[in-house]
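Researcher: I'm preparing a figure for a lab meeting and need a structural model of a single chain. I don't have an experimental structure, so a prediction will have to do for now. The sequence is pasted below. Please return the structure as tokens so I can convert it later.
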Amino acid sequence: MTELVLNEEIYRRVILERVPATEKFLWIATADIKDLHMEVRRGKFDSILAVFADLVRDGVEIRLIHAKEPGKPFREDFDRFPELIHSDRFERVLCPRNHTKLIVIDGLFAFVGSANLTGAGMGAKGPTRRNFEAGFVTDEKEVIRELMRFFDDLYLGEFCVKCGRRAECPDPIR
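Model: Understood. Here is the structure written out token by token.
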């Protein structure tokens, strides 16, 4: 199945339902990343980084690609989670040319859309504060296989060789 998801439906179906249920691996590509908060229990909110830390403690491997350094609130929140700083299960790479918005979970589910990993992008903010976003979720094996191949090439630096912006890249992957 491949389905269209819009606005707060992205937050509900991807961030609230799927991300915390990840069992093996979570791959996320985003241009912008901010201190996204999500409801972890009824009426209780925490940073998505807390969820990432829980997943890493449970043995989930997380890869995160983003295009620019996150702001101060994200960095300060990140520092609360030593498992994200010290674990080999959590890896981040910076690619200034990345504009992909993609989430792959366990190789069984994927989201592709316009939304960055921010509260406004993912639809976690209130109706008058969120962005207008659209995307697709899928469990189609061939589509996910291609998305994973693309993500892996990006993550491993295959595009770095012919990037053309190496001089501006703060931390070339290759």
